[in-house]
Structures are given as C-alpha cells and as structure tokens.
Amino acid sequence: MDASNGSSSAAAPRSRPLSIRTKPRAPAADTDKWTADDSTAEEPVSPTARLMEPVYIVVTIGLGSPLDLPVFTAHMTSGLPRYSRFQSIQVTEDGKPRWARVKVKVEDHIVVPTLDPVAVAANPDQSVEDYVASLFTLPMDRSRPLWEFHFLDFPSSEATSTAVIRVHHSLGDGMSLMTLLMSSASSAADPTRLPAMPKQPERTGAIYAPQRPRFSGIMPFLAWVCSYFVLAWNTMVDVAAFTIPAIAGYFKLCAFIATIMFLRDPHTLFKRSDDTVFNPPRRFVHRSLSLDDVKFIKNAINCTVNDVLVGVTSAALSRYYFRKSGNSNSDKILLRSVLPVNLRSTPSLQTNVNMIESGKSDDVAWGNQLGYIILPFHLAMHDDPLAYIRKAKKTLDRKKSSLEVVFTCKMSELFLKMFGVKQAGAFIFRRMFANTTISFTSMIGPAEQTNWCGHPVVFIAPSVYGVPQALIMHYQSYGSTIKVILSVDKEIFPDYSQLLDDFADSFRCIKDAASKI
Question: For the ranges 234-238, 286-290, 440-444, which has the lowest average pLDDT?
Fold first, then answer.
C-alpha cells in the first residue's frame, strides 16, 4: 500500500485478522518430482543460496487493468522455459544439495484468493496490505519450485488490480528477479520492444577492477600507488578489525568479522530487546518519491543517486528517532545496516534482458551473486538538511575504496565449507543480521511505463521477510518515480505510517535546501 495520503486509518494495523479463503491446491503431481536422470541434473546449490534458507522475496506490483488470467498464464507458460532456476527444486544427494529440473505447470503457482467482500469494500488499500502481510504465515509447497503469483483483482487507491510475487531467495537475488520480470515485459509505448532501462551508472569502486592509468609524471604515479595503500587499509579495518578490537572502537566503522563475532549495535527503539525472534510478523508499506527530484538533489550537490537515498534515509530515521525517544537533539547515534551488493561482472539489467531475448539465457548470471557491506547510518539533528547527504557521500566514497564486499562473500563461502550450512548459517547469517539494526537495498527499474504479461504496470515494490531486523528498507525506481518500501516489525513500529511520513518530509526538506544552492 502506498500511504502517500498519510491517512492513519489506511495504515494502522487491523484489530482483527483478515479473512482469507483460497481454493485448496492439489498436491504436486508425480511429474513434478525430480529424478536422478542426467538430463535433469544441474549445478550444486551455491553457498549464498544455502544461507538464504529462511528468506523470501515479496514483490507487490500495481496493475493498471483488471486481471486477465488466461493472458497472464499464456505469457508465463511461453516464457518459463528460459528460466531454468524457476523450473528447479533443491534435492540432496550424499549430503550435498543441488538443483534438479522438474516439470512445471504454471497454474499450480497461481493463487487468486477470495477475500472478505465487506472488508475490501470498506478499505481496499488495507485489504491489500493485510493480504501481503499474511503471506508470512502461509507455507510453500517444497515439492514444487518455490515461487508463486498472487492476484488481488479489485481496485485500490493506486492500481486497478494487484499482483504479489513470492519467491524463495535461494532462487535468485533482486537482479535475477528483476531480469525475469523485465524479460517478460514490453514497452507501453511500443509493445514490440523490451522496456527501456536507465543507463547503468559507471561503477568506480575497487571491486570493479580499475585499470592502471597512463601517467604523465611522478606525482600521478605516487597518487595511484597511494590509492592502493588506502584500499588495503580500509579493507583491513572493514574486514579484519576483530583481530585488533581497538580499531573497531576507534573508527566506529563497519567491520564484518567484528559484527559476526562481538560488535553489536546498541538497543534502540529500532531493535527488539529479544534477538531470539528471528522472523517477526511484518507489514509491507511503501511511498512514492519523485525520481526527478532525487536527480535534482544529486546534481545540486555533485553526488550519486545512492548518496541521496542514504542521506534521505539518515534524515528520516533521525527525525523518527528523536521524536519518539525524547532524547536531546544534540545526541548522535550510530546504527549499522547490512547492504547487499551485486558482484556480477555484467551489472547492467539491460544487458541481461538482451541476453535472454537473443536466446542466450544460459549466459545470464542467475541465482545469488551477492557480497555484503556493513553500512553505518548516523542519526543526528542537523540545522542544514544537506548535511545528511554530504555525510552519506563521505561514507559511501570510503566504502568504494575497500574490498569488504569481496571478502564478505568469500568468507561466507569458506565458513559454509568448513562448518556446514546449519553452523555457518547460524554463525554468519543470524549474527550478522541480529547484531545490526537495518537492511538497506536499492534497485534500478525500467525508465518508462511497461506492460507485464499483458497488463500495464503502475508501480513495483519489492521487499523481503525472514531476517530478524525490525526494519528493512528498499528503494526501487520505475519511470519517473522511486518507491521507498519498508518491511517493518509491526510490534516495534506500530506507527509505521508516521515513519513513511518522515521519509516524505525529510526528502522535501532536503530538496528545498538543494533548490537554494
């Protein structure tokens, strides 16, 4: 639900559970079972996918037309053979999990629930929100590939109908899922072509293999050499600070190993006091911001879009924290977030979609190709709203001069091989998320309006559940808008609509300040 109107009645949790009735689905047919035939055998399940066992991706898509189920089913049936992972289940042989192909019937993965008509008529936005939240309680059939399409065929304030996609995270990360969606879509302006994607911004971080520049003198050469000393130092601080505890204490910076070993965020109103609740009940809500305004701020301060988004997030969290806690506005709080980073050598979504369209879907890097950065958020009340953006730029610039993301990926794989998925998952995955406060991601979407499986798309709002953090934030661009999507622990954030208001208010203040430069 987009709570852009800030209505408390539309955003507050219901006092009683939503009544949901669905037709029972038959157990998976024998043809859905895997066999050990070489024709169905695929690659082993990757270490990252194995660590994703408790995590599910939920994508809410607003549609601009009523549901046409035969058209959607026909589109998915014709396109599904290009996506091997969505025709596979996990099987175990000799204690080693791998992917195995099964026969898939699209209709078995489609749910059209029957909701309480009185509740839908009274507040359709709340009915959508309640249904998406209820997916947390509904198990998936593991004899089939772990993906589902849920359709709510009634109008809400933003859309004529709503599609909700639920996918187990082991099947792929955000880039994989967005590639699948876009390769199944077409331009609304010209249905004969794929949607236009924004130009991929240049990636200048250390992990993207910078080439040795040509030097015109000794000073540029020394500067180039010095940059690698900085890279080594930043990487050491970020990754290996547990060997020298004073480093973590002095720099107050991100340290992956220190985080999974001992370094914990302070208990604030953003965290549960009991870290044993690994998968709390959640609400999924979102708000639209102007992408043109984000780019205006970016150009005014000479930074990146991600700098703006991190700065806006710091401002919004600061506004919410100091109002709720009653602490002095002179206080400064440091919270940390887990930031997944795409490690693909070809990061462009357009490139991946073009590969699929040209029949080279096997060349696409499907699955989970992720490393992690521990990203700090500084909570403080600044007189100058642009101070949040400048602080975010400084933090992210430093992260680009570190190999932290590569080390986190390789260490996760190493721990998994050494200790197995149960021990490694509990030690790395659980502690990394339990010892930090927030998860934070951003994704680039189409630059124009699109049709998806014969239906116009109004908005795209991805999120996840299955991690212990009370607050998970996503940013998703689509056309001229960018969605901020919150996955919130409803016990910790009963007033989550107010938190969305803080994002909108902070963004407006930063934009107004940028317009005065």
Answer: 234-238
Asked if residues 516 and 504 have their Cβ atoms less than 8 Å apart, the reply is no
Is the separation of the CB atoms in 409 and 370 below 8 Å? yes
How far, in Å, CA of 488 to CA of 141, rounded?
Answer: 26
Cα(260)–Cα(429) distance, integer angstroms: 8
Q: What positions carry a catalytic annotation?
A: 169
53 touches 170 (CB < 8 A): yes
What's the rounded Cα separation, in Å, for the pair 514 and 517?
Answer: 6
Residues 6 or more apart in contact with residue 335 via CB below 8 angstroms: 265, 268, 270, 317, 376, 377, 379, 436, 437, 438
Q: In what order do the strands lie in the sheet with 147-152?
A: 110-111, 147-152, 161-168, 56-63, 455-465, 450-452, 185-187
First vs last C-alpha separation in the chain: 35
What secondary structure letter does DSSP report for 18?
P
Nearest to 158 by CA among 483, 489, 475: 483
Distance CA 129, CA 283 (A): 7
Burial class of residue 311 in the structure, from the number of CB atoms within 10 Å of its CB (0-12 exposed, 13-18 middle, 19+ buried): buried
- Contact 462/177 with Cβ under 8 angstroms? yes
Contact 449, 53 (CB under 8 A): no
- List the single range of 123-127, 206-210, 309-313 with lowest mean pLDDT: 206-210
Q: How far apart are CA 437 and CA 311, in angstroms?
A: 17
Do residues 267 and 480 lie in contact, with contact meaning Cβ atoms separated by under 8 Å?
no
Sequence-ordered strand ranges (E) for 325-454 = 333-342, 370-379, 438-443, 450-452
Q: pTM of the entire structure?
A: 0.81
pLDDT single digits (tens) 290-301: 999 999 999 999
Selection from 321, 379, 375 nearest residue 499 by Cα: 321
Q: How far is CA 508 from the centre of its chain?
A: 24
